[in-house]
TrEMBL record, chain A:
Domain of life of the source: Bacteria
GO molecular function: phosphopantetheine binding
InterPro entries for this protein: ACP-like_sf (IPR036736), PKS_PP-bd (IPR020806), PP-bd_ACP (IPR009081)
Record's protein name: Polyketide synthase
Entry keyword Electron transport: no
Pfam families: PP-binding (PF00550)
Organism encoding this protein: Actinoplanes nipponensis
High-level lineage: Bacteria, Bacillati, Actinomycetota, Actinomycetes, Micromonosporales
Domain annotation Carrier: ranges: 11-85
KW Cytoplasm (keyword) present: no
SMART domains: PKS_PP (SM00823), PKS_PP_betabranch (SM01294)
Record keywords: Phosphopantetheine, Phosphoprotein
UniProtKB/TrEMBL annotation, chain B:
InterPro entries: Acyl-CoA_Oxase/DH_mid-dom (IPR006091), Acyl-CoA_Oxase/DH_mid-dom_sf (IPR046373), AcylCo_DH-like_C (IPR036250), AcylCo_DH/oxidase_C (IPR009075), AcylCoA_DH/ox_N_sf (IPR037069), AcylCoA_DH/oxidase_NM_dom_sf (IPR009100)
Protein name: Acyl-CoA dehydrogenase
Similarity comment: family membership: Belongs to the acyl-CoA dehydrogenase family.
Limits of the Acyl-CoA oxidase/dehydrogenase middle domain: 120-214
Any single Gene Ontology cellular-component annotation: plasma membrane
Boundaries of every Acyl-CoA dehydrogenase/oxidase C-terminal domain copy: 229-378
Annotated source species: Actinoplanes nipponensis
Keyword ATP-binding (UniProt): no
Alphabetical UniProt keywords: FAD, Flavoprotein, Oxidoreductase
SUPFAM superfamilies the UniProt entry points to: Acyl-CoA dehydrogenase C-terminal domain-like, Acyl-CoA dehydrogenase NM domain-like
Sections of the chain in a coiled coil: none
Cofactor dependency: FAD
GO MF term set: acyl-CoA dehydrogenase activity; flavin adenine dinucleotide binding
Length: 88, 521
């Protein structure tokens, strides 16, 4: 997981997010699709902010947690994050 | 700095003492008749209180949020209905200070300073705490929007000139599916807005708790507060601020309760001796004073965090809003247990003031997020808070500002507000603070601060170990949240005391009260 801090790619971010969401939901990572909104899994919007916050801690960058509201699937969030990290 | 805070506070105190509108008999009669305290609100307008609701950058006198909280507490100490009725304008306008464009904020500031009442309509009949369930809709039209729907159980909905309204702008809803509008009633077409009748309430009986029905209400594009679709984010941030004001009102109710109970115990003679001579009465009064000190410590730090620790406000304000009204309700209940049988609640003592207070105070625990809703908000952040505790993450400059009531508040930075907190500096700094108390304070405090540090460590260990699932928060998490609140309030008490290390017995009582409530011995 820690190699993420070096060069995050959409793939590595996606994998990390799948694990993180699965952990929050108490489900197997294999059961988490990356192209559906996280609310599909019963994650409410405010709770989803904590996942964004974990991502912030994990990457050790400052992120606006509402990024997860603007990009509500794991795919969209990973792509947006990579763009954000590049521009930072 | 102290002078600018104390000045209006002293002048307000004089007004509350002298104005006939604040005569307790008059206010009691209005409450019995369920009539709005219009004269008292007019007296506060004439005093200039509304200008304290408006940030300096928008033409008002609000700089540090601690100052406006102190003013609202003073009003609430006299009469909670008046505080709820008048203070609503402060709560109703905050969204515009956070996200409105500067010209709109300046216009609103001028209206408020001139006495306009501002209300804030979030709740609907079928959707209380659940903001994302809202059905009042705004649809785009040429040059603006059309609003349809109802908001209900809204403070000052009928009396207000301006109403901040949360409306669904995406039929699919979701966290980016709502937008905030500032409605100016005078600019709506006749019939577009109908006030719903006043709702009779258990407490604050004179307040205008009513609603609005909008039918094809056209507003211009300039009525939108902040970006379209950002209503939920803005209002959640606004609630972080307004919760500290609710907490101030709750403290005022606590002050009033303690004042009334102390006077009652001194004045009521039973079997030849005043009640105040009895040990059980002395004990309950001392306990109530300690509970109020504990609540005040949490409230003081939380409200100063708006200026000083904005990144932590989501946690600090939720903790204060969950904790303070619950403490005040509890101290009122315990005073009632001991003194109620002698007539404390009866109409014979100060126009029935205590009985009324007992009803009024409970309302603060319901609006702007109930204790449970706030506890849930805290629980959502357990994992991150536990991690921050382990790392010892803290903001020392912010901490110094919020724990020193004489420090000048730094400028309000809405952009620094965040929906989640990176940590809690007050708790992170507790082990260091405890070392300082042990090194420099009296021996009687050393053992207590050590127990507090140990309890705080345990609470965080349990938070880290908690297997939380969204939508399935177990009751034990709420119990843990309550202990977190007690650790926070006690740690705030320690930090504030270190700034002004006088009256160690008072800090001792505060710590004993917190540790007892946590069940540690
Ligand atoms: C005097 C008064 C003035 C008011 N003024 C205003 C106003 O000016 N503007 C406005 O918009 N609204 C106002 N309200 C409405 C108030 O905000 C709502 O009553 C409040 O949101 C609770 O809604 P509800 O009563 O429908 O209860 P519900 O939201 O249905 O809640 C029912 C119970 O479930 C608990 N609960 C709800 N959600 C959670 C959660 N996530 N976690 C744990 N427990 C939960 C609640 O604490 C409560 O005990 C006012 C209410 C009163 C009584």
């Amino acid at each position: 997981m820690s190699d993420l801090t070096a060069v995050p790619t959409p793939e590595s971010l996606r994998a990390w997010l799948v694990d993180c969401v699965a952990d929050h939901l108490g489900r197997a990572p294999a059961g988490i699709a990356t192209d559906v909104p996280l609310t599909t899994y019963g994650l409410d919007s405010v709770y989803a902010l904590s996942i964004a916050a974990e991502l912030e801690d994990h990457l050790d960058v400052s992120l606006d947690p509402t990024l997860i509201w603007d990009h509500p699937t794991i795919d969209a969030l990973s792509a947006a994050l990579v763009a954000e990290l590049r521009s930072a | 700095m102290t002078a600018t805070v104390a000045d209006p506070l002293a002048r307000l105190g004089a007004l509350l003492d002298r104005s006939p509108a604040f005569d307790p008999a008059t206010l009691a009669a209005l409450d019995r008749a369920e009539r709005f305290p219009a004269d008292a609100c007019a007296a506060l307008d004439a005093f200039g209180l509304p200008a304290h609701y408006v940030p300096v950058e928008h033409g008002g006198r609000l700089h540090g949020f601690g100052a406006v909280a102190a003013l609202l507490r003073a009003v609430a100490r006299r009469d909670l209905t008046v505080a709820v009725a008048h203070g609503k304008t402060y709560l109703g306008a905050v969204a515009t200070w956070i996200a409105g464009d500067p010209a709109a904020a300046a216009r609103l500031g001028a209206r408020i300073a001139a006495g306009a009442v501002v209300s804030c309509a979030l709740t609907e009949r079928a959707h209380g705490s659940d903001l994302l369930g809202g059905e009042l809709t705004a649809r785009p039209r040429a040059g603006g929007w059309t609003l349809d729907g109802e908001k209900w159980l809204i403070n000052n909905a009928t009396r207000a000139e301006l109403v901040t309204v949360l409306a669904r702008t995406d039929p699919g809803g979701g966290p980016r599916g709502f937008t905030l509008f500032l409605l100016d009633k005078a600019r709506l077409a006749p019939g577009a807005l109908t006030p719903a009748p006043k709702v009779p309430t258990y407490g604050v009986r004179g307040a205008d708790i009513s609603g609005i029905v909008l039918r094809g209400a056209h507003v211009g594009a300039d009525a939108v507060i902040g970006p379209v679709g950002h209503g939920i984010e803005i209002i959640l941030k606004a609630l972080h601020l307004t919760r500290t004001a609710c907490v101030a009102m709750s403290l005022g109710a606590g002050d009033h309760a303690l004042e009334l109970a102390t006077a009652f115990a001194a004045e009521t003679v039973v079997a030849g001796r005043p009640l105040a001579d009895r040990p059980e009465v002395r004990r309950v009064l001392a306990d109530a004073a300690a509970a109020l000190d504990l609540a005040e410590a949490a409230a003081t730090v939380a409200v100063r965090a708006i200026n000083g620790l904005p990144r932590e406000l989501s946690v600090l304000s939720a903790v204060a809003k969950a904790f303070v009204p619950a403490q005040v309700d509890d101290l009122i209940a315990r005073l009632t247990d001991v003194l109620g049988p002698y007539g404390l609640l009866g109409p014979g003592f100060r126009h029935g003031a205590f009985g009324r207070l007992e009803r009024d105070a409970r309302i603060v625990g319901i609006f702007d997020g109930s204790s449970l809703v706030n506890r849930n908000a805290l629980i959502d952040q357990f994992r991150r808070l536990a991690r921050a505790w382990r790392k010892g993450a803290r903001d020392d400059a912010g901490l110094a500002e919020v724990t020193d009531p004489d420090a000048p508040p730094s400028a309000f930075r809405p952009a620094a507000l965040s929906l989640v907190a990176g940590g809690n500096s007050v708790l992170a700094a507790l082990p260091d603070a405890a070392r300082r108390v042990r090194a420099t304070g009296p021996a009687e405090l050393a053992g207590l601060v050590d127990r507090l540090v140990a309890a705080t460590g345990e609470v965080h260990a349990e938070m880290a170990a908690f297997d939380l699932r969204p939508h399935a928060v177990p009751p034990a998490a709420f119990e843990l949240a309550e202990r977190y609140e007690l650790c926070f309030a006690a740690a705030a008490g320690v930090q504030l005391w270190l700034r002004r290390p006088v009256d160690a017995p008072r800090l001792r009582a505060l710590l004993v009260r917190a540790l007892d409530a946590m069940g540690t011995r």
